[in-house]
Design a protein that fits this description.
By secondary structure, the chain is of the alpha+beta class. It is built from nine helices and 23 strands. The strands form six sheets. It has a six-stranded antiparallel β-sheet, with no helix packed on it. Strands 1, 5, 10, 11 and 18 form a five-stranded antiparallel β-sheet that branches. The chain has a five-stranded parallel β-sheet with strand order 20-19-21-22-23, sandwiched between helices.
Length: 384
C-alpha cells in the first residue's frame, strides 16, 4: 500500500513590507532533502497572506545535484489541472497535480518556479538551519541545470512553496514542528537529520514556524505585520495541510510574554496585549483540541530562558515559569507529552538564564549547539 506523506514544509507568513517587495522575471529554486523515497510528488503553494494574485509561469521538480544544480535529464514539469502555469488568488492555496517522479531515500530534490510578471512577494517565511537554503536567479531558470553564479543569490526566505508530498510506503509518517522564531531556526533541521541517520527511518519532519508569532495576538500595522498571524489564524490551516502526520510538537508563547512594552515606549505594543496566564493556557488548549481533531499526538515544548533579553522583567519570568509548570503537568492531562527544552538548556546555577554555550548571544534564541541538543531531546520523545 502507498500513501501521501509531506516530507518537507514551512509555514506561510507575511514578508516584511518594503518598497521593493515586487519582483519580476526571476526564478526561485529550493533544494529539499527527502527523508524517504517514493514514486510520485505533489507540491503545495500558498498565497494565503497575499493581497494580490500570484502567477507561477513554470514549475519544475528535479533531482538535486548540488545546491544550485539539478539533474535536468530526470526533471519533470509540474502541472496544475493539466496546465503548466497557474494563478493563485489572494488568500488562496493550491496543490499541484500528482507528478510521476522518482524520489530516492535521503535524496535531494529541487523545486524551481519562474515568476514572469511583477509579483507581490508577500506570502513568505524566513527559515534558517543546515537544511534550509534557497536561491533566486534572474530570468527563467526553471529548466536550467545550473543557476549562474553572476545572476544568482542565496536566500533564507521561502516564498509561496509550503510543502512537498511524496507517494510513499504506508509505514511512513511525519512530525510537525509548530512555533515561532525558535522553531523557524535550526532545531527542526537537526531533528530531520537525526531521523535520517537511521537507515530504517520512517519519519519526516515538517516545520510550521514563523518568527515573531504569538498564540493570542497579531499586529495590524505594517511596522510589525511580518511578525505573523495569531494561533487561531494559523494552527488549524497549517497542520491540516500536512499529509501523513501523526504528531505535532508545539513550542510557542514566549512572544505573548515579551512583546508588550506599553504605548509610551511603542505605540503598537500596548501592555493590554499581555495575556493573563489563564489566557495563555486556554490558547494552548485550543491547539491541543485542534490536534486531537486531526488525530495528532500533541507534544508541548517548554519555553526557554529569557534572562538578559531587552524586555526581561521579573513579572515576565514569573509568567513564563507559571506557563512552563502548567505545560509540565501535560496541560492538566490534556496533552500527550512534554519536551522540557527549558530544563535542558537552562543554567544549573541560575535557572532563568541559558547554560554556558547555549545562548546565541541575544538571551532569547539558543546557540547552534543548543539547537542540536533540542533535536536530540525531541528525537527521543517522538520515538515513544
Amino acid at each position: 500500500m502507498a500513501k501521501w506523506v509531506t516530507v518537507w514544509g514551512n509555514a506561510t507568513s507575511v514578508n516584511e513590507r518594503r518598497p521593493e517587495t515586487y519582483a519580476r522575471d526571476i526564478t526561485l529554486r529550493y533544494p529539499v532533502k527527502c527523508a524517504f523515497g517514493g514514486n510520485a510528488v505533489r507540491l503545495h503553494f500558498s498565497n494565503f497572506c497575499g493581497t494580490e494574485p500570484v502567477t507561477l509561469n513554470q514549475v519544475t521538480v528535479a533531482p538535486a545535484v548540488s545546491d544550485r544544480e539539478i539533474n535536468l535529464k530526470d526533471a519533470a514539469l509540474v502541472t496544475f489541472s493539466g496546465n503548466e502555469s497557474v494563478t493563485i488568488g489572494a488568500g488562496q492555496e493550491i496543490f499541484s497535480d500528482e507528478i510521476p517522479f522518482r524520489v530516492k531515500p535521503k535524496g535531494g530534490v529541487s523545486v524551481s518556479f519562474y515568476l514572469k510578471d511583477f509579483t507581490l512577494m508577500r506570502s513568505a517565511v524566513v527559515i534558517t538551519g543546515p537544511l534550509s537554503k534557497g536561491f533566486y536567479s534572474l530570468g527563467n531558470r526553471a529548466l536550467s541545470s545550473v543557476l549562474p553564479v553572476e545572476s544568482t543569490r542565496s536566500t533564507n526566505i521561502y516564498y509561496f512553496l509550503t510543502g512537498l508530498d511524496v507517494l510513499t510506503g504506508d509505514d511512513k509518517r511525519c512530525v510537525v514542528c509548530y512555533g515561532d522564531s525558535i522553531t523557524s531556526q535550526s532545531w527542526p533541521d537537526y531533528l530531520a537529520m537525526k531521523c535520517m541517520d537511521d537507515p530504517y527511518n520512517v519519519t519526516a519532519v515538517v516545520r510550521r514556524a514563523a518568527s515573531g508569532t504569538r498564540i493570542l495576538r497579531e499586529y495590524t500595522c505594517i511596522t510589525y505585520e511580518s511578525y505573523g498571524l495569531s494561533g487561531r489564524h494559523r494552527f488549524e490551516r497549517e497542520i491540516s495541510s500536512v499529509s501523513g502526520a501523526d504528531t505535532v510538537i508545539i513550542q510557542q508563547g514566549i512572544n505573548d510574554i515579551i512583546h508588550p512594552v506599553g504605548t509610551d515606549v511603542n505605540p503598537f505594543r500596548p501592555m493590554s496585549d499581555l495575556p493573563a496566564l489563564s489566557e495563555l493556557e486556554a490558547g494552548m488548549e485550543y491547539y491541543i483540541d485542534i490536534a486531537k481533531k486531526y488525530k495528532l499526538k500533541a507534544l508541548l515544548g517548554t519555553l526557554l530562558p529569557i534572562y538578559g533579553w531587552r524586555t526581561y522583567a521579573p513579572f515576565r519570568e514569573q509568567m513564563k515559569n507559571g506557563f512552563n509548570d502548567w505545560i509540565r503537568s501535560y496541560a492538566n492531562g490534556k496533552a500527550d507529552g512534554v519536551i522540557d527544552f527549558d530544563k535542558l538548556l537552562r543554567s544549573e546555577y541560575l535557572t532563568c538564564e541559558f547554560a554556558e554555550g547555549y545562548d546565541s548571544g541575544d538571551h532569547l534564541h539558543p546557540s547552534e549547539k543548543a539547537y542540536a541538543a533540542m533535536a536530540e531531546l525531541a528525537f527521543g520523545e517522538i520515538q515513544k
